[in-house]
Each structure stands twice: as structure tokens, then as C-alpha cells.
């Protein structure tokens, strides 16, 4: 029978390999000698929500709230980009690639979005990671019965340099949401009148677009570059 210490050591090894896996080999971000308070965690969440909502001064917030190498993973965002591309930054992405790999590209993509509302439904946090559940209800604005979109966002933090407006940067985001409801809203709003490209990797069939609402005269409400407000995440 294995000794307690053997079991303990094996357990530790198993735990550390599980913990290390999602961080691309960079375990330094974790356990960096800090532990987010509830208020710190809410500030991190609020910063992100303000970016998605494009509040006044959002670019300054982005520079103070995101690390330079900020990386955002979202298959939901990539599906919107690939299925309903809008705007010059809307370059097709493999579904599982990062949606943004640094702060500069995030700001560029986000700057082409229409603001959407962002209602925080839940928040949880560990010492270095914040998880929020959220809802947006106005992904399009020119139809009635807009489908609500609910999502989950995991925000990994790292310490920001001394003197930064916020003590912690958001370093990595994992964000998924109901891209199906969002896309259907875009179709119903006439924003993607041709439907999804049948050759697209998502394989979703083009919807009947025979005019529910007039085609948007601009891509204002559309995901451009990155899906509108895709919690870019
Ligand atoms: C940000 O990412 C883009 C796209 O990969 C790249 O062209 C650019 O050089 C990067 N900028 C910085 C500051 O890392």
C-alpha cells in the first residue's frame, strides 16, 4: 500500500501538471505573490465590460487594463468573424486560433464594433483569475425580439507595473458565448444577407434571408473584425 507521502507527492505532481497546462508553459503568471480581493476582481471585470461596451475613453482603459501581450481565445468570436465578416479587420481565422494576440490588435478590432450592452450576471475569482457570466440584449438594434446572448468569460490577470491606473492587467481571456443566437440576430437584421458561406468551416447552412427587416445600411451593428462586442472576447 503506498505511503501517505507517496500519495501526497503523486497528487501534487498531478495537480501541478493540470494547473500548468492551460498557460502555454508560462507558469510565472500564476502564484505571482498576489491574491485578488473581491474589489480587485470586480475592477478587472468592470474594465473588461467597459471595453466591450466601448464606454467613453475605452482606448485609454484598454491601455491601462490589458497587458501588452494580451491574448484572447474565443471560438465564438472566430465563428462570428468567419461566418459574418464585417469590416476591414474581419480576417478569417481558424476556429481554434487566438482571436487577438496583443493589445494593439484588440484595440484595432474593438474600434470597429458597435457598442453593446453588457450585464454582469455572476462573478467568481481565485487569487489571479476572474470568471464572469454575462448577458447582452442588443447585439442588433433594427429588429424586435432580439435574442439575448449569454456567455462565460475567464480573465487571467498579471500584476501591472507600478504607477499603472489599475494594479492588475488582464493577460489572457477565454470567452465563449451563444454565437448561434448572435448570428441568427445578424441574419434576421439583414446584416449578413447572403448567409454563411457554404464553404465555411462551420458548415452552418445559409438561412432564408428573404427580408426580415431591411438590410443594414451600414455594418454598424455587425461584428466587424471581431464580432460586435464579442467579449473579445
Ligand atoms: C500584434 O499582433 C499583430 C498581428 O499578429 C502583429 O502584426 C503586431 O506586430 C503585434 N504587435 C505587437 C506590439 O506585438
What would a concise description of this structure say?
This protein is an alpha+beta fold and 233 residues long. It contains 6 helices and 6 strands; from the N terminus they run αααβαβαββββα. α2 crosses α3.
List its traits.
binds 2-acetamido-2-deoxy-beta-D-glucopyranose; 29% helix; 20% strand
Written account of the structure:
By secondary structure, the protein is α+β, with helices and mostly antiparallel strands. It contains six helices and six strands; from the N terminus they run H-H-H-E-H-E-H-E-E-E-E-H. A six-stranded mixed β-sheet has the order 2-1-6-5-4-3. A hairpin with an 8-residue loop joins strand 5 and strand 6. Helix 2 packs across helix 3. The longest helix has 17 residues. The chain is globular. The chain binds 2-acetamido-2-deoxy-beta-D-glucopyranose. The site of 2-acetamido-2-deoxy-beta-D-glucopyranose has 4 residues, from helix 5.
Amino acid at each position: 500500500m503506498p505511503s501517505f507521502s507517496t500519495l501526497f507527492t503523486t497528487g501534487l505532481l498531478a495537480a501541478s501538471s493540470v494547473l500548468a497546462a492551460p498557460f502555454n508553459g508560462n507558469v510565472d503568471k500564476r502564484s505571482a505573490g498576489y491574491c485578488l480581493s473581491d474589489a480587485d476582481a470586480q475592477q478587472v471585470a468592470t474594465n473588461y465590460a467597459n471595453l466591450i461596451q466601448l464606454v467613453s475613453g475605452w482606448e485609454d482603459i484598454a491601455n491601462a487594463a490589458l497587458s501588452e501581450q494580451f491574448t484572447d481565445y474565443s471560438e465564438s468570436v472566430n465563428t462570428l468573424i468567419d461566418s459574418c465578416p464585417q469590416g476591414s479587420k474581419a480576417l478569417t481565422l481558424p476556429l481554434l486560433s487566438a482571436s487577438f494576440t496583443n493589445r494593439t490588435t484588440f484595440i484595432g478590432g474593438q474600434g470597429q464594433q458597435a457598442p453593446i450592452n453588457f450585464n454582469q450576471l455572476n462573478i467568481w475569482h481565485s487569487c489571479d483569475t476572474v470568471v464572469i457570466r454575462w448577458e447582452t440584449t442588443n447585439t442588433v438594434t433594427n429588429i424586435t425580439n432580439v435574442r439575448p446572448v449569454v456567455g462565460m468569460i475567464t480573465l487571467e490577470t498579471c500584476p501591472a507595473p507600478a504607477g499603472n491606473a489599475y494594479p492588475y492587467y488582464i493577460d489572457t481571456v477565454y470567452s465563449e458565448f451563444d454565437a448561434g443566437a448572435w448570428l441568427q440576430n445578424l441574419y434576421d437584421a439583414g446584416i449578413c444577407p447572403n448567409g454563411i458561406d457554404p464553404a465555411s468551416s462551420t458548415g452552418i447552412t445559409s438561412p432564408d434571408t428573404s427580408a426580415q427587416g431591411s438590410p443594414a445600411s451600414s455594418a454598424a451593428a455587425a461584428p466587424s473584425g471581431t464580432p460586435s462586442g464579442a467579449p473579445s472576447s
